[in-house]
Amino acid sequence: MRQSPYRRENKPLNAEINVVPYIDVMLVLLVIFMVTAPMLTTGVDVDLPKEQTNTMSQQQLPIIISLTGSGEIFISYENNIDMPISEPELINTLSNLQMQNNNTGAPPIQVMINADQNNQYGAVMALMANLQQAGIEKVGLLTGSPLPPPKLQ
C-alpha cells in the first residue's frame, strides 16, 4: 500500500534550547548600552566620600572658612580665629598660604567649608569657585553630628 502524500511524518521531539533569539537580544542590549554609556558620564566632576575615610593629618591644621546665612565670610587658620574677610582678600590669603606651602614642600593645604544650613546653594558654589581661583584643589564640607531619632512611646 502506498502512503498518502498528505500524511504527516512523526519526528522525534527536539528538546534542545534554541539560543539564537537570546543571542540576538543580548547583542541589541549591548549596542544600546554602548550608545547610552557615554551620555551618562557627562556632568560635574565630584570627589564623593568613600565608606571608610582617612583622618586628617595632624601635621597641619586645616583652614576653616565659615559662611553665615547672611553671606558673611570668616576664615580660621594658624593663630587667626574667625577673622572676617572679603572674597578678594580670601583669594589672596589662600593663594599666599598655598605658595608658602609649595615653597616649603609641605603637603597641599586642607580647606574645610563650614556653611550655615540655611545658605543658598549658589552662595556655597560661589565660595567654592573662589577657592578654585586661589588654587585649592580639594575642599571638604563640615557637618554637625546628626540629631538622635525621636523616641517612640
UniProtKB/TrEMBL annotation:
Function of the protein: Part of the Tol-Pal system, which plays a role in outer membrane invagination during cell division and is important for maintaining outer membrane integrity.
Gene name as annotated: tolR
As for subcellular location, the record says: Cell inner membrane; Cell membrane
Q: Name one Pfam family in it.
A: ExbD
Q: What is this protein called?
A: Tol-Pal system protein TolR
Q: Which domain of life is it from?
A: Bacteria
Instruction: Name the HAMAP family on file.
Output: TolR
Keyword set includes Cell cycle: yes
- Record keywords: Transferase included? no
Q: Which organism's genome codes for this protein?
A: Psychrobacter coccoides
What family does this belong to?
Belongs to the ExbD/TolR family.
Q: Per UniProt, which keywords does this protein have?
A: Cell cycle, Cell division, Cell inner membrane, Cell membrane, Membrane, Transmembrane, Transmembrane helix
The record lists the membrane-crossing segments as: 21-40
